[in-house]
């Protein structure tokens, strides 16, 4: 656990310098290890190694690249328990959820390994004496900067899509889950040629140094602030930027649904992974016709959650990733209460070690409150009661984010109107989570830009060339 190393040009070595970031167990506050921080020279070396390997990897037949990713996926599956345990130790999510994230990462790697060889261009109808083609080519070096809340699944998606399309990768996992990122890179690299995958370690400074290098793609999933900083740094340069910056996802509860069922959906969307999900429910608009039984049921579900360390089998609500995140969440709750919201359950920082925060339900919230306007990223369900579906939809359409939204309704006209009008990349009707595999959407507004998932991510990782093959005169 203490020998976390960086990977450059297929060589694992200790990070240069003495800088370290202390990682603690969010369940009890004990120090797990001191993670190293890559020096500026190592950032340059990693990008240079990826650039040196890019031409050879791009020329490698697509089927061979896919086979390598398939082998890597099998290796990740074989170490799934180890990766899940590290994830839980570092960021606190219940072990079963962490294992689900690893399994999702394995599935994504296998999906891209299958899609890579068939990701091809098309022929065009030109003159009879010529052939015209549109072909996809890798962009070159991809900087993959990934988050802590689902570290394996997200990393596998970005890395897998980059590799099967012939790109090389410089990978920087979050400083909050460095051991998980290190182990994942170690497993993947064993099945890849030298320089194709390189690992850097550190926080925002390391990420800034990486973005400042001559990379061809920056693919980032994380906070809005970091995403905006990346966009500014890449402005004016020929760098493709893919961003998922998080959101402030609304949930609309219509008058005609069962309030108990709606509360189950709301609790899942608000409290899963302690609310630390990019597409978590962040604000709820419930019709006044069912508001009272809905709130009663939501409070009961919050109270019923079993809180504890993520490694405990009975735990349903683990700690937040660290106390800095807990301070942020509690500040949103306190500001809402000061602004007139009513606390129905939770809302108090518990005594003792760790960074636990209770499942919290607030009523009487308005859209000027930070808890309704910004990304809280904690187990908080802020509720506003509305008089009509029209009011709910209008308020759900507000704000600066546009990642996802959910509508619970039995009215087909309401559902259709909602998915057409909501300015979000993903709209879910009657399920807060779920959907067919391979779905991909463009986040809107401050939530980012570009495809981050699905087959369309392969398009983002490549660039198109038009080829005209004419014939000389006889």
Automatic annotation (TrEMBL):
<dbReference type="InterPro" id="IPR016160">
    <property type="entry name" value="Ald_DH_CS_CYS"/>
</dbReference>
<keyword id="KW-0560">Oxidoreductase</keyword>
<dbReference type="InterPro" id="IPR016163">
    <property type="entry name" value="Ald_DH_C"/>
</dbReference>
<dbReference type="Pfam" id="PF00171">
    <property type="entry name" value="Aldedh"/>
</dbReference>
<dbReference type="InterPro" id="IPR016162">
    <property type="entry name" value="Ald_DH_N"/>
</dbReference>
<dbReference type="InterPro" id="IPR016161">
    <property type="entry name" value="Ald_DH/histidinol_DH"/>
</dbReference>
<feature type="domain" description="Aldehyde dehydrogenase">
    <location>
        <begin position="14"/>
        <end position="467"/>
    </location>
</feature>
<dbReference type="InterPro" id="IPR015590">
    <property type="entry name" value="Aldehyde_DH_dom"/>
</dbReference>
<protein>
    <submittedName>
        <fullName>Aldehyde dehydrogenase</fullName>
    </submittedName>
</protein>
């Amino acid at each position: 656990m203490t020998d976390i190393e960086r990977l450059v040009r297929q060589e694992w070595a200790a990070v240069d310098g003495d800088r370290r970031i202390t990682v603690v167990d969010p369940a009890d506050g004990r120090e797990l290890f001191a993670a190293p921080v890559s020096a500026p020279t190592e950032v340059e070396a990693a990008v240079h190694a990826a650039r040196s390997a890019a031409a050879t990897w791009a020329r490698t037949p697509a089927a061979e690249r896919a086979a390598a990713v398939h082998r890597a996926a099998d290796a990740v599956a074989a170490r799934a328990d180890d990766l899940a345990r590290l994830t839980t130790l570092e960021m606190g999510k219940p072990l079963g959820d962490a294992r689900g994230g690893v399994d999702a990462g394995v599935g994504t790697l296998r999906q891209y390994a299958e899609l890579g060889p068939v990701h091809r261009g098309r022929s065009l109808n030109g003159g009879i004496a010529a052939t015209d083609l549109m072909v996809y080519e890798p962009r070159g070096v991809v900087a993959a900067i990934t988050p802590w809340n689902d570290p394996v699944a997200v990393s596998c998606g970005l890395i897998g899509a980059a590799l099967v399309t012939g790109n090389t990768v410089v990978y920087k996992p979050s400083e909050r889950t460095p051991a998980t990122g290190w182990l994942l890179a170690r497993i993947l690299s064993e099945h890849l040629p030298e320089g194709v995958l390189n690992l850097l370690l550190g926080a925002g400074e390391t990420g800034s140094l990486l973005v400042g290098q001559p990379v061809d793609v920056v693919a980032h999933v994380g906070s809005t602030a970091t995403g905006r900083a990346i966009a500014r740094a890449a402005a004016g340069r020929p760098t493709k930027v893919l961003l998922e910056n998080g959101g402030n996802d609304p949930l609309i509860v219509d008058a005609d649904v069962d309030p108990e069922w709606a509360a189950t959906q709301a609790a899942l969307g608000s409290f899963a992974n302690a609310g630390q999900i990019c597409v978590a429910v962040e604000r709820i608009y419930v019709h006044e016709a069912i508001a009272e039984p809905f709130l009663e049921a939501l409070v009961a579900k919050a109270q019923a959650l079993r809180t504890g360390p993520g490694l405990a089998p009975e735990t349903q609500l683990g700690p937040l990733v660290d106390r800095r995140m807990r301070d942020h969440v509690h500040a949103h709750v306190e500001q809402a209460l000061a602004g007139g919201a009513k606390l129905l359950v939770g809302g108090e920082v518990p005594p003792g070690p760790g960074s636990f925060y209770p499942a919290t339900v607030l009523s009487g919230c308005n859209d000027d409150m930070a808890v309704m306007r910004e990304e809280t990223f904690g187990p908080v369900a802020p509720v506003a009661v509305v008089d009509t579906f029209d009011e709910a939809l209008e308020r759900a359409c507000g704000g600066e984010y546009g990642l996802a939204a959910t509508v619970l309704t039995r009215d087909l006209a309401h559902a259709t109107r909602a998915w057409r009008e909501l300015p979000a990349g993903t709209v879910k009707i009657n399920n807060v989570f779920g959907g067919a595999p391979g779905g991909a959407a463009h986040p809107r507004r401050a939530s980012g830009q570009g495809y981050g998932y699905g087959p369309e991510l392969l398009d983002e990782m490549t660039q198109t060339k038009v080829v005209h093959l004419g014939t000389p005169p006889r």
